[in-house]
Amino acid sequence: MTTRERLYDLVDGLPDDKLDEAEALLEQIAPGRNGRRVMRLEDAPDEDEALSEAEKAALERLDRGISDPRSYTREEIQQLLDDNHS
C-alpha cells in the first residue's frame, strides 16, 4: 500500500466531527493552487511599515467609535469614505 493510499484510508476512517480539523492540518502542508504553499494569516510577517497619518487618523476614529458608539447617516459614512480615499 502506498503512502497516498494509507492517507486516503486514514481520512476515510475519520469521524465526521474531525474532518474540518484534518482539512486544516493538511492545508498547512499542501501546495496552493499555483503550486506554492498558501500562507496562513497567523504565519504572515509582522507589519514593517510605519502607519501613515491617514491610517493613524482612521484608527483614532475607530477607537472613538468603539468607546462612544453612535449611528451614522449615509452621508456621514460617504464623507468618511471620501476622506480616506483622497
Percent helix among the residues?
Answer: 40-55%
Question: Secondary-structure element sequence?
Answer: HHHH
Total helical segments = 4
For the report, how would you describe the main beta sheet? none
Summarize the structure.
With 86 residues, this protein is mainly α. The protein is built from four helices and no strands. The chain is 55% helix and 0% strand.
Structure description:
This protein is mainly alpha-helical. It is 55% helix and 0% strand. The protein contains four helices and no strands. The protein has helices at residues 3-12, 19-29, 53-67, 74-84. The protein starts with a helix and ends with a helix. 0% of the residues are buried.
Layout of SSEs?
Elements: H1 3-12, H2 19-29, H3 53-67, H4 74-84
Provide the descriptors you would attach to this structure in a database record.
86 residues; 55% helix; mainly alpha; elongated
